[in-house]
């Protein structure tokens, strides 16, 4: 049988072929342009290295000259004179005797995994090299290294987050704060899905939880979407507009000025705490230099990492109004069930030392640049059957709390 096509059928088939052809051309164009954008961004992030160190976890740490770091891509930092030390440390820290002033005085203790294979020389800073796969995991080149913007209309302490973010935190608010200090033990919580995470950190915040929130954040995290693995990593973050277009993790945008040649932000922390095993913790202090106005970060009571210049912020250029300590996870409710992503050690606070996660030595920096215990610590959890926080106070630990949990369990379906 011989079939003939009408003129209308010929046109219809021609249109379908044209649609397929255009779709293929657009796809090829996008495939061609996206890698081009990726390569351009990689070149911007990965500065020329004086030395490179391959870590056992697969990371490459580039030792970049301090004057070539990403911070100086910022237009306001083009002629910036690097501040190698804060003008003042917080009173009560006695940090002058703890922070090494020369390489010969520095401790050889391992605090990050890449240290096992080498160190960066003086006048350089260690930067975790960004790979093409890292950027391709992001929703776009522009959003790589940034948190997903959420419509945050109120502080966490007012009510549950509507975007799947769940917290178990201690916090203070209602005063002017110029810094925060704590010691937290470090674990490797299990994260159910790549685009979920588990984090334990300090938040130093000011402004409203809408479009102008200022936040400085530091701690440890398991974030497969950013790093491509489930390792526990040291991180920092900052934003001046509620995570919309400013700020980033670590050194993935211009802003933070690093001075330490010892610690790589975003690198794997080593060793880690174990259930009924040795407990390993890190100390983090972030405070505002009362003379220069920059926000400094001290890690482990001996590594002066660097500073966020005050011009990055609006409200934090003066002071913070909320300080939070604790854990956060993302719950995507896969299959209609609560996530099994763990917070902290994955165990509830009542299990205590060696089993649960903790924050101790909780302090704020007041208007006289003095470290002191905060007054009136409050707590908040989104779902207390899933993740819990329990505070205490004693002579050895000062103000402390245990926190965390396993996520999905019989009481948290």
Describe the protein's topology.
Layout: H1 7-45, E1 51-54, E2 60-65, E3 124-128, H2 132-136, E4 165-177, E5 179-185, E6 198-206, E7 214-222, H3 224-227, E8 233-239, E9 257-258, E10 281-288, E11 295-299, E12 303-308, E13 320-330, E14 357-365, E15 371-372, E16 378-381, E17 388-394, E18 398-404
Antiparallel strand pairs: 1-2, 2-3, 4-13, 4-16, 5-10, 5-14, 6-7, 6-13, 7-8, 9-12, 10-11, 11-12, 14-15, 14-18, 17-18
Number of helices: 3
Low-confidence stretches: 1-7, 26-33, 95-108
Structural class: mainly beta
Note the quaternary state here: single chain
Mean pLDDT equals 89
Cα shape: globular
SSE string, helices as H and strands as E: HEEEHEEEEHEEEEEEEEEEE
Q: What is the helix content?
A: 10-25%
Radius of gyration in whole Å, from Cα? 24 Å
Overall domain count:
1
Tally of strands: 18
Q: What about the largest sheet?
A: 9 strands, antiparallel
The percentage of residues in β strands lies in: 25-35%
Cα end-to-end separation: 63 Å
């Amino acid at each position: 049988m011989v079939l003939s096509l009408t003129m209308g059928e010929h046109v219809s088939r021609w249109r379908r072929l044209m649609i397929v052809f255009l779709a293929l051309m657009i796809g090829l164009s996008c495939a061609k342009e996206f890698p081009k954008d990726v390569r351009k961004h990689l070149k911007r992030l990965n500065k020329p290295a004086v030395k490179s160190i391959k870590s056992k976890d697969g990371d490459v740490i580039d030792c970049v000259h301090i004057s070539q770091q990403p911070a100086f891509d910022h237009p306001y930092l083009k002629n910036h004179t690097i501040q190698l030390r804060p003008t003042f440390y917080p009173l009560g820290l006695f940090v002058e005797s703890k922070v090494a002033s020369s390489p010969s005085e520095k401790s050889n203790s391992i605090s990050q995994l890449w240290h096992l294979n080498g160190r960066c020389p003086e006048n350089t800073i260690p930067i975790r090299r960004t790979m093409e796969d890292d950027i391709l995991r992001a929703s776009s080149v522009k959003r790589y290294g940034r948190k997903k913007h959420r419509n945050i209309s109120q502080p966490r302490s007012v009510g549950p987050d509507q975007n799947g973010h769940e917290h178990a935190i201690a916090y203070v608010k209602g005063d002017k704060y110029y810094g925060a200090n704590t010691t937290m033990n470090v674990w490797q919580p299990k994260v159910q899905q790549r685009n979920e995470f588990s984090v334990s950190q300090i938040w130093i915040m000011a402004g409203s939880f809408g479009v102008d929130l200022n936040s400085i954040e530091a701690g440890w995290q398991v974030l497969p979407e950013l790093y491509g693995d489930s390792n526990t990593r040291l991180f920092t973050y900052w934003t001046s507009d509620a995570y919309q277009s400013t700020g980033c993790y670590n050194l993935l945008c211009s802003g933070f000025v690093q001075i330490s040649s010892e610690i790589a932000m975003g690198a794997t922390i080593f060793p880690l705490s174990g259930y009924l095993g040795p407990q390993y913790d890190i100390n983090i202090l972030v405070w505002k230099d009362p003379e220069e106005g920059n926000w400094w970060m001290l890690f482990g009571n001996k590594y002066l990492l660097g500073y966020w210049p005050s011009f990055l912020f609006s409200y934090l250029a003066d002071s913070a109004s909320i300080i939070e300590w604790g854990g956060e996870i993302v719950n995507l409710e896969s299959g209609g069930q609560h996530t099994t992503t763990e917070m902290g050690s994955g165990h509830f606070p009542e299990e205590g030392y060696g089993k649960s996660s903790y924050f101790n030595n909780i302090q704020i920096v007041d208007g006289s640049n003095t470290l002191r215990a905060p007054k009136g610590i409050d707590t908040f959890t989104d779902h207390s059957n899933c993740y819990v926080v329990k505070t205490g106070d004693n002579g050895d630990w000062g103000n402390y709390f245990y926190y965390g949990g396993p996520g999905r369990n019989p009481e948290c379906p």
